[in-house]
Amino acid sequence: MDILGFIASFALLIIAMTVHEFAHGWVAYKLGDPTAKYLGRLTLNPLAHIDLLGTIIMPLMLFIATSGRFVFGAAKPVPIDYRALRNPKRDIIWIGISGPLANFIFAFLLSILIRFIPLALFAHLILINVVLGVFNLLPIPPLDGSRIVEGLLPLNLAYRYMRIEPYGFIILMALIWLGALDFLIWPTVILIIRLLGINI
Fold this sequence. Notes:
Blueprint (H helix, E strand, L loop, with lengths): L2 H28 L4 H4 L13 H14 L22 H29 L3 H17 L7 H9 L2 H8 L5 H11 L2 H4 L1 H10 L5
């Protein structure tokens, strides 16, 4: 991937992350928490979701570290006020799953559109959405998969589990560096892409 490829991938990643974070904010709002709305995060404007570390620095570092083979990042997390949720234990599961689900739905809609407008750009955006959705389902705090696990665990175990959140970024970077995500992520991504009927 050259610098132009990086810019294109980065732009598509921003689109996918915006859809992802909007879904978190919208579901939280529907479940009683207006925090995202009050902070201007209930929007599809990408600028509202950009995080310096996750959205800019991390993709650039991964691009350099992998010699241009891999670009990935994270948007600014949508703030959630657990106290405002009608049923925090249950609702955090729905909020957690909403981001990946939005990416999968977006990928599905694009897989229909690409049959009428066969652009490579759409295929790439489908791939990015599927990767983002699957990646976020990993049960490593603060990824969405950890919110689902948090909601399913008894309160005392959930509290202990979420104590690893400050180390989550380090754990993820270690997994990426060790290549562990190749067998944690890609088999599922390939399966979903094939189910969508996309050749990449």
